[in-house]
Amino acid sequence: MSVDVKKIGEQVEKESAVINKIRTEIHKVIVGQDELIDGLILALLCNNHVLIEGVPGLAKTLSVTTLARMIQASFSRIQFTPDLLPADVIGTLIYNPKSGDFTTKKGPIFANIILADEINRAPAKVQSALLEAMQERQVTIGDQSYPLEDPFLVMATQNPIEQEGTYPLPEAQVDRFMFKIRISYPQKADEHQILKRMARSKPATDVDRIITPYDVKRLRLLADEIYMDEKIEDYIVNLVEASRNPSAYKLDIGQYIRYGASPRASIFLALASKANALIEGRGYVTPQDVKTIAYNVLRHRIILTYEAEAEEKTTEDIIDQILKTVDVP
Question: What residue ranges carry the coiled-coil annotation (predicted)?
């Protein structure tokens, strides 16, 4: 097995230049926000969806559009509003009175990268239109199903639920996002740099198209080959199990957890840990890889009780206790 790990490590070393170039190119436009940028790259490598939450003005939309411009692939931006209809997202059948036939008009969901901007501004009927696309990677219009392009990623932004005019996303849809990334205000030095770069009538937002869908697929296949020891797999399962049965791990947090993480959490922790090892330039997964991505994978999958809210406990607090308590291999 060590020979395989060495071979994978050599491949990772060759590809690390591509990943560093992606980071460098995004940082031409985005100042700071390293966790967000790495999260977007990880989602790209895992061919999965990401939900970004933060107050307005933190470059959520700009980060996604910058990443999309770097890839030679199709891109759609859907601005979610309260009056949006499912047909505005997936498409609809158009009746032709001359021929008496119906023709299919495909919606903006038919692209490689979808920016679902302010996704929680639209009601549940619109959110339901995304469920099939995100999970099955196909869309049904009328009585016919159409496969979506590969790669297919939904990168959604949302304002905090506490803001006015927002709708809480259904749990079934939130669970389909691999990551939920929360971003906060920049550091003082970063904000000074943002001011210098963006305080002009036409800020520089151009980036080079440096990768193709083929490059993305190649990197994705390499991420799949990253070596994960069985002890790391056990560690991942234990972390997820601790969110469902905390008393078995001597955790006194059961009263705060209404529902633990779903099986998707185990799958996504494994996938994202491998991808994180890749962007860190390693051919094998360490426990630190799991810890690094644990918050983004678990924070929207652990549902808290009213008691937790009353005591102002957050999912981050719960995840922090689980990571500190579960034995590390």
Answer: none
pLDDT surpasses 90 at 129: no
Q: Output 13 or 293, whichever has higher pLDDT.
A: 293
Q: Where in the chain is the domain with CATH 3.40.50.300?
A: 33-197
- Asked if residues 80 and 130 have their Cβ atoms less than 8 Å apart, the reply is no
The pLDDT value recorded for residue 169 is 79
Q: What does the pLDDT look like over 258-300, one tens digit per residue?
A: 888 888 899 999 999 999 999 888 888 999 999 999 999 998 8
Type and span of the H or E element at 77: strand 75-79
What CATH number does domain 33-197 carry, 3.40.50.300, 2.60.120.20, 3.40.190.10, 2.40.420.20? 3.40.50.300
Q: How far apart are the first and last CA of the chain?
A: 19
Pick the closest to residue 116 from 80, 91, 150 (CA basis). Answer: 80
The model's confidence at residue 161, banded by pLDDT at 50, 70 and 90, is: low
Q: How many angstroms separate the Cα of 175 from the Cα of each of 121, 169, 300, 302, 303?
A: 18, 10, 7, 10, 11
Q: Domain 226-325, what architecture?
A: Orthogonal Bundle (1.10)
100: Cα separation from own chain's centroid? 43
User: What is the C-alpha R_g of the chain?
Assistant: 21
